Amino acid sequence: MKLKALMEHAVQIGMNSDPRGKEYIEKQLKKQKDKWEKLKDDNEKEMFDTERTWNPYADSRIINGSGDEEVQTLMIGIDIETPEILLADRLREKGQKIDAIFIHHPEGRALADLEKVMPMQADLLALHGVPVNQSDAQIRPRMERIWRAIHADNLFRTERAAELMGFPAFTCHTITDNLVWRFIEETICAKQFDDLNEVVKALEEIPEYKYYAKKGNPPIIVNGSGSSRPGKIVATEFTGGTNGPEEFLESQSRAGIGTILSMHVTEKTLDEAKKHHVNMIQCSHMASDAMGINLLLDKLEAEGHIFETVDVSGFIRVKRNS
Ligand SMILES: [Fe+2]
Ligand SMILES: [Fe+2]
Question: Based on the domain organization, do 202 and 110 belong to the same domain?
Answer without folding.
Answer: no
